């Protein structure tokens, strides 16, 4: 397995954790704590995690659309958790990944230009 495939697998596992893993953790918690974890995951953790992952990928590899595409394609897994497809979350999460990726690619370009 080459380096790009390993990194892609790592990104996939991280995104799956935000989309599915946190809900598995919430099942072991108190009801109020589980609700707080799920709400915070929807509003803060997932968008921030996707932004940071996109930033890291963009900074390391420049224009590689791996993270935004994974964020967009893996989102339908949330249908199993919520029982419905919430399209605006998919758009927001994908935009967070794209903004992070573009900012990281810009930082990579500036770094390479200054060298």
Automatic annotation (TrEMBL):
Highest rank taxon of the organism: Bacteria
Keywords, comma-separated and alphabetical: Membrane, Transmembrane, Transmembrane helix
TM stretches of this protein: 7-26, 32-56, 63-80, 86-108
Transmembrane is among the record's keywords: yes
Protein name: Uncharacterized protein
